[in-house]
Design a protein that fits this description.
single chain; 566 residues; alpha/beta; three-stranded antiparallel β-sheet; 18 helices; coiled coil; vWFA_dom_sf; VWFA domain-containing protein
């Protein structure tokens, strides 16, 4: 049988069979990175996928592979014929009577103790396994004859249940009688056939991948078909591994590992998706250069004017002008009218710190997935188009921690460890006996995030500095010196401490823009606090549903740069 450790242990089958028509090396590869990243964003790691999960995660366009494997119609026909023969051969009335007869005989032979006799008879009469199980626990001694008899009785009643289900689920039309063990085997076989049929019919209707487990299919297929499928498995395995490596996925020890190349591929796909509905006039993505005193020289030139910097002088053109005026004599004497200056384009740098809320509430509705997707999209945009800009990410929960872009996909909302309706806790973090690991992590400390963000931005050499806060509500934690306060429901002391940090940002010229995610417990106080914090630094509050977060943040960043250039 095929080893479960191998990627080819699953077979992607299509409606036609042409093993020669495998994808061309120049054909666009299937998108394997997006599925891997979606899994990473949801779970925080690349745990090993089951064969079914892996098959459904990796989607191959049927137009790229002209029908792998035996035809889906042929497989369905084979399984349906097998099922038809079984149903046309056997009948179930007799085996149902046998199963009930065995249960009744077991019940008659069981002698319950006097204190359990009434309960035992009711359980047998009503055919309730749960009641028999309770009697077994009440018997006390599992080695007693009564306890052992109850185990056999529960097994016999379980057989009654399964055979009743077999008779009601399938329409048997034959006349051959079955024994109880034979009926149970036939039930297992029919259910396996139904499972395979469901997968194959879905593939036929949706043109998506059907999952065929070679080990399971070998129970029904001919040896020649199995050899053919084994050869196909090798083809699929080689193709999938090759495409995974091309896109930066490495398969190690039963799991995929995302390489830096995979991050770049996924970020490129995110940005392509974000800008697919966007015209240049709406986004400012293709804005024209602003001409004037700037940092980047262009090929265009102009005559020197008073106030222009000679650092951008076109030396060759200026010398030619001087020689044309005085002739080819030495020394060459430059005058103001000879000097030509390169026009320049402003290329202002932005410095941005992004606070990513990973508190306990971000788990609701999968908000944390959208936050991480936004972070990867913004980092990809800046790295590819604005490499001179400064970008830093901070994970925000009970504390705030700097995170490298490569860590974003692994971030997860913190588990809730306190369920009291009112929490009023404090901890002296200067105490060597107190560790961060002892502190409940699921609170929201915007104040600490702003403090760290302000410290990072202090070292940048641009006046264009901003902090972007991605959160779903009010802060519930803050520092007073080394003393950490955890206050839920949100408390005015926490709000005031956060506002103080916001005023320090305003004093240093740092703009705070807040993206407020919709949540089930969002209140008017959440919105009022967001406005107070952002307006104090001439920032804005942007309300967004989680699935639009990446688009809104990227567009906002581009519009901010356009404003700075203008």
């Amino acid at each position: 049988m095929t080893s479960r450790e191998r990627l080819g242990g699953i077979i992607h089958s299509y409606q036609k069979y042409d093993p020669v028509s495998f994808p061309s090396p120049t054909a666009p590869p299937p998108d394997m990175v997006s599925s891997a990243f979606d899994h990473m964003l949801a779970y925080g790691d690349m745990r090993r996928l089951t064969p079914e999960e892996l098959a459904r995660a990796v989607k191959i366009d049927p137009s790229q592979i002209q029908g792998l494997g035996p035809s889906i119609d042929a497989l369905i026909a084979m399984l349906e014929e097998r099922k038809r023969k079984i149903l046309a051969t056997y009948e179930t009335d007799g085996v149902r009577k046998k199963a009930r007869g065995e249960f009744s005989m077991q019940a008659t032979e069981t002698e319950p103790p006097k204190q359990h006799r009434k309960q035992f008879r009711r359980a047998v009469r009503e055919e309730q396994i749960h009641d028999l199980e309770q009697l077994w626990y009440q018997a006390g001694d599992e080695r007693s004859p009564f306890a052992k008899s109850l185990l056999h009785l529960m097994e016999a009643l379980g057989n009654v249940y399964q055979i009743d289900e077999l008779a009601s689920k399938y329409a048997f039309t034959g006349h051959e009688a079955m024994t109880v063990p034979q009926a149970l085997r036939i039930k297992e076989e029919l259910e396996a056939i139904d499972k395979l049929l469901k997968q194959l019919e879905e593939a036929r209707e949706t043109a998506q991948i059907g999952v065929i487990d070679l080990e399971e299919l070998s129970q029904f297929a001919e040896p020649g078909d199995m050899q053919q499928l084994e050869e196909l498995r090798a083809q699929v395995e080689n193709y999938m591994r090759e495409q995974a490596e091309r896109q930066g996925l490495e398969f190690e020890k039963g799991a995929f590992r995302l390489t830096p190349k995979a991050y770049r591929v996924f970020q490129g796909k995110l940005l392509e998706q974000i800008f697919s509905d966007l015209t240049a006039s709406r986004s400012g993505r293709h804005e024209g250069p602003v001409i004037g005193e700037g940092a980047v020289e262009t090929q265009r030139t102009k005559d020197y004017e008073f106030g222009d910097s000679v650092t951008h002088m076109d030396v060759a053109s200026s010398m030619v002008n001087a020689m044309l005026r005085d002739g080819p004599s030495l020394p060459i004497r430059l005058k103001g009218e000879d000097i030509v200056i390169h026009k320049t384009r402003n290329n202002p740098k932005c410095a941005t710190v992004v606070l990513l809320d990973m508190s306990g509430s971000m788990r609701y509705g999968g908000q944390y997935i959208n936050v991480k997707r936004m972070g990867l999209a913004l980092e990809g945009l800046i790295r590819s188009e604005f490499p001179g800009d400064y970008l830093r990410f901070l994970e925000m929960y009970t504390f705030a921690k700097p995170r490298h872009p490569s860590e974003l996909a692994e971030l997860m909302p913190k588990p809730v460890t306190i369920f009291d309706p009112v929490v009023r806790l404090k901890a002296d973090m200067s105490d060597p006996e107190i560790s961060e690991w002892q502190i409940p992590p699921h609170f929201t400390n915007i104040q600490h995030g702003l403090q760290l963000g302000r410290q990072f931005l202090a070292s940048t050499d641009t006046p264009n500095r901003q902090i972007i806060i991605i959160t779903d509500g009010l802060p519930t934690a803050h520092f007073e010196g080394e003393m950490l306060y955890l206050l839920y429901p949100p408390h005015p002391e926490t709000e005031e401490a956060t506002m103080r940090e916001g005023r320090l940002c305003a004093r240093e010229g740092i703009t705070i823009n807040m993206f407020l995610l919709q949540s089930w417990n969002q209140t008017r106080e959440d919105i009022q606090f967001a406005y107070k914090l952002s307006e104090g630094t001439k920032g804005r509050v942007i309300f967004t549903a989680g699935h639009d977060l990446d688009r809104f943040v990227v567009w906002d960043y581009l519009n901010r740069r356009k404003t700075i250039i203008g």
